Amino acid sequence: MSRALLVIDMLNDFLKGNLRIPEAEEIVGRVKRLIEVFRSRGLPVIYVVDSHLKGVDLELKLWGDHALEGSWGSQVIDEIKPREGDYVVKKRRYSGFYSTDLDLLLRELGVDTLILTGVATDICVQHTAADAFFRGYKLVVVSDATAALSRERHEKSLKYMEEVYGASIASASDVEDMIAKPQP
Ligand code: ZN
């Protein structure tokens, strides 16, 4: 079993900008810790990031301009910037798989299990989880390293992913323990 950490939309616009998710601030430390754990074990860290085309992308009509290609809002927050050896996959829809090379990258890396972190639990995390499930990946959603616009939306989405995609719901410290254990 080979695992990769997905860090979804931990961008300036969602943490500090015009589509701010207040609860997201609380998860930064745990996401950072998981990134360090994965890097230290030589496991892939993949940032999946909104990068929208102004005036074109459908999502912008619903949510207003956010994470526009090349803007400050589309950059990963300074606290957890990608480093050499990490991967960055840009997306223009909620799902990290839609019209991106995420699936190709994961297959080339030999990954079969995705550890999902980031925002928003019930939007980009959940749609990425759906597409991962359709493609046969196993899923672990980190309950205290994901966040949504409300606690209720967060909890509801975790439950949904557990029931409908067979995702395991785990805490960041559970994931850390799992990674520390020798591979079967
Ligand atoms: Zn977006």
Produce a short descriptive summary:
This protein has 184 residues and is of the alpha/beta class. It has seven helices and six strands.
Bound molecules: zinc ion
Report the major sheet: 6 strands, parallel
Task: Give the overall form.
Answer: globular
Would you identify the regions where 5 or more consecutive residues have pLDDT less than 50?
A: none
Q: What count of helical segments does DSSP give? A: 7
> What is the share of helical residues?
25-40%
Structure write-up:
- With 184 residues, the chain is of the alpha/beta class.
- It has one domain (3-180): 3-Layer(aba) Sandwich (Rossmann fold).
- The chain has seven helices and six strands.
- The chain has helices at 12-15, 28-40, 58-63, 102-109, 121-134, 151-165, 172-180, and strands at 3-8, 45-50, 87-91, 113-119, 138-147, 168-170.
- The chain has a six-stranded parallel β-sheet, sandwiched between helices.
- Helix 2 packs parallel to helix 7 and helix 5 (121-134) packs parallel to helix 6.
- The longest helix is centred in the C-terminal third of the chain and has 15 residues, at 151-165.
- It is globular.
- The model has no long low-confidence stretch (mean pLDDT 96).
- Zinc ion binds at residues 50, 52, 59, 66-67.
